Amino acid sequence: MATTNNMTLNLKIWRQKDKTSEGKLVDYRVENVSPDMSFLEMIDVLNDQLVRKGEDTIAFDHDCREGICGMCSMMINGKAHGGFKNTTTCQVHMRLYKDGDTVVIEPFRAKAFPIVKDLTVDRSAIDKVMAAGGFITANTGNAPDANAMLIPKPVADEAMDAAACIGCGACVASCPNGSGMLFMGAKVSQLALLPQGQPESPKRALNMVYTHDTVGFGNCTTHAECEATCPKGISIEHIARMNREYLKAAFTYHEKNRSEGAG
Amino acid sequence: MMTAAVNHYFRSSIGRKHLVAITGLLLCGFLVGHLSGNLLLLVGPDAFNIYAHKLFSLGPVLYLIEAGLALVFLVHLYLAARLNIENRQARGQYTLKTRTGRGTTLMSASMPYTGAVLLIFIILHLLNLKFGTNYQTQVDGVQMRDIYRTTVEFFQSPVNVAWYVFAMACAGFHTAHGFSSAFQSLGLNFPKYYPKIKIISYLYAVTIAGGFAFLSIWCYLKGV
After folding, report:
1. What is the DSSP pairing of strand A79-80 with strand A75-76?
2. Which helix (H) or strand (E) holds A103?
3. pLDDT of A196-212, one tens digit each?
């Protein structure tokens, strides 16, 4: 196979030893990058070079590498997941770059996302919001009949659009306010649309918003930068639905015994 | 408990955004009334003065309305400033960050700045006009304030006109984002009509900002 298509890239990568140390952008040069590589494979190649030289490898989050797990992150040239429409970093391919390009790679940054090392950030704030209400109560035992609960197709579609959220945090990273509203909106909206989510609906909205506000996320000012950057193309309509759910819950929810049940 | 939920509402991100949205829309409503009244400048000195006189004659009712307006304004200002400070602290500090071009606009990004300009503008506006030179005139034998003269005189200075046009451009930018954004914050974003709200938002911004800016230029050209 001809190697003429292979590229050389100049990378500026954020290196930070741990949570407390100062970080900085460090220059790297990667040669022989195939246009068919994914962005993460390109970093693998660089890490391989670093290992051979006995240097510390670049820490970055990744898992499925097929765009569905929500582990990969990175601000590539100032944009979350590289800024390509509906694409996670692992699905960005090197053919989108040109030979000799300089690429700046930083971690997802927000007050709610402290850096662990290099490009790895602690996104457990998202998990905390999820744990506060992103669940339903279901009977255990045999799987229920598929059509026992009727859901109109358009409603199911909309819930699925919201359920597409992989919780990667690109919305938070690209938000000028470091807000987690799109992520939370997707979760609240998805479960509010479906009958299975109804019993917990008011409590979910109250608890998730409360947790969101206390773990360091900012407030929404409707820039819609989240929607533009979301690798799953989730609409800010879901934020609006959450706002309605929250308003309804704040003024109508009444609980006699707060100690019972989960959440 | 219900009270706990309501209490949290007024301290939460979403609850405070609702208040910013509602007060913002009320202020938008006020601007419509203000511009409608000001258009009487075009009719003539008497029409404008009689309108102002009728407003002044409301007495305690006017004070009540003014107090309400001031309260709405202060709530809007205070909460928006608080949210902005929190947002600045919550955002990531990047070495390099570029916009996607599909989200943030110049209008949405400049909200705190255009808001600050409007705050300065409103203070000066009240000092220069409402609390400006108190000329007196008589219309049909009734003694009243010649607010028309105060206004037209004020705009004889090109600096004042330029400042007003600039401030109104800021008001246009502020409301172009704020008007539609208020509906989103209040949860009123449905694909069926939200695109229309966005269009109305731009039309509103252009009409209000253009209307006031036009009147200041008109006063300058009209002369004393």
Report:
1. antiparallel
2. strand A102-106
3. 999 999 999 999 999 99
Q: Model confidence at B100, in pLDDT bands (50, 70, 90)?
A: confident
Decide if A174 touches B, using CB distance below 8 A.
Answer: yes
Give the three-class secondary structure for A104.
strand
Residues A202 and A172 reside in one and the same domain: yes
Domain tally for chain B?
1
Phi, psi of A28 (to 5 degrees): -135, 155
Q: Taking CB atoms and an 8 Å cut-off, how many pairs form between chains A and B?
A: 170
Q: Do B5 and A253 touch (CB under 8 A)?
A: yes
- ipTM of the complex, rounded to two decimals: 0.92
- Please give the Cα distance from A29 to A118 (Å, whole number): 17
A chain contacts of residue B103, beta-carbon cutoff 8 Å: 174, 223-229
Tell me which residue in A112, A216, A228 faces B103 most closely, judged by beta carbons. A228
Per-residue pLDDT, A160: 97
Going by pLDDT thresholds of 50, 70 and 90, the confidence category of residue A263 is very low
CB A173 within 8 A of CB B96: no
Are B186 and A226 in contact (CB < 8 Å)?
no
Domain boundaries, position B132: 15-87+105-222
Per the structure, the complete domain to which residue A59 belongs is given by 7-117
Residue A73 sits in a domain of what CATH number?
3.10.20.30
**Nearest-by-CA chain B residue for A253:** B2
Q: What is the CATH number of the domain that holds B115?
A: 1.20.1300.10
Domain boundary among A117, A132, A159: A117
Q: What average pLDDT does range B206-217 have in this prediction?
A: 98
pLDDT value of position A256:
63
Read off the CATH number of the domain in which A152 is found. Answer: 1.10.1060.10
